[in-house]
Each structure stands twice: as C-alpha cells, then as structure tokens.
Amino acid sequence: MKKGKADPCNYLFRRARVIDPARDMDAVADVLVVDGILTDIKPNIDLPSDRLAHFAVIDASEKWIVPGLIDMHVHLREPGEEYKETIDTGTMAAVAGGYTAVACMPNTKPVNDCAAVTEYILERAREQGHCRVLPVGAVSSGLEGRSLAEFGELKASGAVAVTDDGRPVANSMLMRRALEYAKNFDLPVISHAEDPALSEGGLMNEGPTSTLLGLHGIPNAAEEVMVARDLVLAELTGARLHIAHVSTAGAVRMIREAKSRGVPVTAETAPHYFTLTDDRLMTFDTLYKVNPPIRGSADVEAVKRGLADGTIDAVATDHAPHSSVEKDTEFEYAANGIIGLESALPLILELVREKTLTPSQAVAKVSCNPARILGLPLGTLLLNERACMTYLDPEFYFVLDCTTFRSKSRNCPFHGQPTRGRALITFFDGKVAFSRLSK
Predict the structure, then answer these.
(1) Annotated catalytic sites, by residue?
(2) Among 188-197, 198-207, 224-233, 430-439, which stretch is predicted with the lowest mean pLDDT?
(3) Angle at 163 between CA 151 and CA 407, to 5 degrees
(4) How far apart are CA 271 and CA 400, in angstroms?
(5) Where in the chain is the domain with CATH 3.20.20.140?
(6) What average pLDDT does this structure show over 319-327?
(7) Which residues fall within 8 angstroms of residue 351, CB to CB, at 6 or more apart?
(8) 84 neighbors 408 (Cβ within 8 angstroms)
(9) How confident is residue 3, by pLDDT bands cut at 50, 70 and 90?
(10) Sign of CA pseudo-dihedral 94, 95, 97, 102
(11) Can you give the pLDDT at residue 302?
(12) 11-65+384-405+413-435 is classed in which CATH architecture?
C-alpha cells in the first residue's frame, strides 16, 4: 500500500445489505468502521452524538457491503512490459473496480519462475500497490514446457499457485509431474486448457461467423481435449486442478461430471464468456480478439448454467492490458486479450438482474470461492480486523468509458456500453483505497 495515500478511517453505514457468503450472511444491517477496523455489524448501531461527529455517516439503503473482491486471474505486466500496465496502475484499476486482491499471472519478462521474480513483485506491491497482490508462479522454467520450475522455492517466496497461463502445458507427462509436485506443496495448478495443434493459426471461434469472415477458426475441441486430459491427470494424482477461462459447453459438461465423481477440480470463467458471442467480430474489431476466443450463444448459455449450478466456482477477469501498438493493427497480427478490472462488476451483477445467480452466489464467485481455491484466509468480513470490504451500489447507472479507467491500457470491448452496478468505496488494509464519495 502506498504510504500517505489514505489514513485510518471512521465510517458508519446505515441500513446496508451485508452479503458475506462465507458466513451465510445476507441481511440489512449497520456497519461500523473505527480507525480502519471493522468493529461491528448488527441491525442497529447507536453512537453518542459527540462520538458520532467523528464519523462519516452514510445512508446505505439499497446499497451492498461485501467482502473485498478477489480476482484470481490478472496480468499486471510488471516486470518487463510496464508500457502496458504496472503494479501501480493495475492495482489502482483493481480498487476502482471493487477488488482488494489480485492474483497475477507469471508470463512477465522475465517469467515468474523463481523466487527472485516473485519477491520483486511482492516488493513492488508493498511500495506501489493499492491492494493485495498474489503472485502466481510458472509451471515450467521460462514457460517453455520442458522442465518444471522450482515449486518449493516459489511457494516459500510467496506464490499462491502455479500455471503456464498464456501457453498450455502441452506435454502430458510434464503436466502429470507438475500436479504431483504441486500436491507436495499444497499449490493448485491452473490449467490454460488449449491443444496447440488444434488451435494453431486460429484467430477466432470456429463456426459460421469465422467461415463468413474467412478467418481461420479455433474449434471448441481445442479447449475440451485439454480439459479432458487434465481432468484425467487430476484424478490420477489427486492433486488440485483449476481450469482457467472456461469458454465452451463441452468443458462445462466435463468439469461438472468430474466434480460429481470427486475429482479435485475447480474452474473459473470471465465476463466476456457469459456476455459476448462471436458475431461481435463481424466488424473485425480487434478489441474482441481473446484466447480462448469468444464463442457461440450455446456456449454462453452453458457457461451461465455452469455458474448457476456451481460447476464454475469463480469469475475472474483475465485482465490483459495491451497498448495500441498491439491492438490497432490487422486482425491477424493483433494481440489476444482485453482489460476487465474496471468493467467486471456490472457485468457480474447483470447475472443477478437476469436471475442466473442470486446476490450471494454472485458475491461468492469473486470473494470466498477464489480465496478457497487459492487456500487463503480472505473473502469474508472479519470483525476486529482492518477493513477489507467493498461498498457498492448494484443499481448505479453509468456508461462504461475506458478513457477514464485507471489502467494504462484501453483495450476494453465494453466501452460506451450503458450498465448498472459500481463500487463506491473500496476498503483495503483499514484504509480507503478508492472512493467515489466525498467524506
């Protein structure tokens, strides 16, 4: 946390809807924060008038207070590509979006495959970060898929999981060994599920739209073949497997079936996979170019069902900043990825408005569930601890405007979209990390 950015605070929220799925709480209550400590949550909190004068008293009717949101899949680009994003700007984007913790992927330059890079990220987070940064280490040295990184060293230095995200672990024996090795250190292995032989040369989802546009497609099978393999290996080893950015109906179906048999697997998806369909690419807009690609309507509905029934445990943004150099070019050469930290919350809340998820289910996908997957004591409202929570208005109407984002990059396909739901105050470590209100 940057020193001097925010002081310990005194707040009394009146009549907030407090949602904490980890405690099975969904109730209207007053919430008291004293000198940055979450002191009390109860139906009515009375303070003497002389003491009340030292508090910001907020009428929180129709607003929510939830645990600080957790995004378990972001790219902060530091070290190595600071022109796209930094730990400073990425975590500022996070708190503006309501997030108090982000897990950053290892495909930096240099790759986070050793203690030195993990420690550098954590040191930069202490100096420049606005929220908690959770480094994720590499599965293989240099993300080259040839030999395993030193998981014990990564864990000891602060890594919370391992992945070669951005690239699949193509070698099945290496993936087996990764799962076995990670199990010894109680680290989840995050799978970037992609068969490179099936996706090679692909630019978008394989289907009628890709045929019409004359673009080489990526079939659903490219994801599903690798999901199937990794589920088999997780069952064989008994190790914790997490499937990243699930996008296809087949992947959802296989994960659901594996869970029913007790395979230790969890899964995430991203807002663009339950919001967008591949017909958005009819204009060849590179803002919609992601990997895995945006799929068809049947896949979107399957992802929503997977979220509703718990097959998909978490929603992560896969926040992937790129500069105009990588995006403002021919579709074939444009980089994959979009930013999401400042647009995710209203898209997730849309699932509540359309009754795909209950409010408690939606909050769980970005709080206690990611914390459980990563094995961290986060994602819940802890009394007598420094406040780590998000105060939000689920009906706050605004137009998404990426020119106002705190992120360094602007590659957001939702720019200009009218939407509802916004973080008003984000508390982290007992301080106001971000506020849209004047105290």
Answers:
(1) 318
(2) 430-439
(3) 120
(4) 14
(5) 67-374
(6) 97
(7) 274, 304, 307, 357, 362
(8) yes
(9) very low
(10) positive
(11) 98
(12) Roll (2.30)
